[in-house]
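[Automated response] Your request has been received and processed.

Submitted sequence:
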Amino acid sequence: MELTIRNTSFHVEDRGTGAPILFVHGFPLDHTMWDAQLNAFADRYRVIAPDLRGFGMSTGAREQSEMEDYANDLHEILDALSITEPVTLCGLSMGGYIAWQFARKYPERLGRLIVCDTKATADTEPTRANRLELAERVMKEGPEYFVDGMLPKLFADATLETNSTLVDQTRNVIIRTNPQAIAAAALGMAARPDMTATLSDIAVPTLVICGAEDQITTAQDMKKLAVQIPNAQYEVIMGAGHMSPLEKPAAVNEIISNFLAATDI
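Generated structure:
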């Protein structure tokens, strides 16, 4: 469906009935990265997966989008869908950065939290410099210049070798993405604050998932993150890289399903 909120059109997948689960995609992707989860949970839950501002079929790309800006958009999307009960928010990578801001600003709207392959720390200086360069170059050259260098960082070696269909689908999503949205998000991620100190304030049931072969957010780093969240459950997905819900959907879905059943709200 398409929702118009303050002159911005948001494409939102909205399926099923029951307790709402809000899926927030990573960078520079769109809602389709969650297809396996939407299909798995729509028979028991109301599953909601928006294209973030400027990504996928959504409009409204800005010059720079802070992680808080995306969290505000999610808040308004829930209002537009008349969802008043607390949601389970599931975010991957940049979706996790957005999740920290959502939890900070709208704790009354959060019932459970699932973060996949993400971090709470701010960028290191080298990473920040890379993002600033990406933001500048993508506006001139488009996503083609970085996509083939990015894919090996997103997927485990086994995925790259044996699942070319999945890798090609992801490449096509990135290639189709609005360069302005990519630049805005890159600048926003470069400017994001360190959220580590806020992890101890998270009071809802939390599930932390990481691919065992993730090069971007390592399993060791995510384990340290999970320890800082009160009573968080930590799970490693063998054979997966940074895109664990895409690479190993059955394993991720089983873990999420068990978590939801054990933390009924």
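Summary generated for your ticket: The beta strands are 2-5, 8-15, 20-24, 46-50, 87-92, 110-116, 206-211, 233-237. DSSP finds eleven helices and eight strands in the chain.
If you did not submit this request, please reply to this message.
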